[in-house]
Amino acid sequence: MRRSYRSKKSRNINSNRFQQQLIRAILVVGSLILLIIFFFGDHGLYQLYQLRSEKAKIQSTISFLREKKQLLEEEKTKLNNDPKYIEQLARERYRMAKKGEKVFKVIEKDSK
Fold this sequence. Notes:
Layout (H helix, E strand, L loop, with lengths): L1 H39 L4 H37 L1 H12 L18
């Protein structure tokens, strides 16, 4: 009887150890799965980081385009209302001159 009692007791101890190890393994695997989902899932931290950096790039592009739009609006206003500005552009960009004026073209030497 003693022998069977001890063997049952040792089986119970081994069974309890196995159950504890199984529970630990399940908890570890479950925790790893949750961490992977938390960091790399559709709404995970990595995705959040990517979206924030993309948002920052888009906001800087928007800011740049707003400044460019403002400059173009100012130039449009000058072109519609300022004859002196139009004359200046015609002289600088298109080498135009009034009657009696001479236009000189400066040729730079190569710096070789």
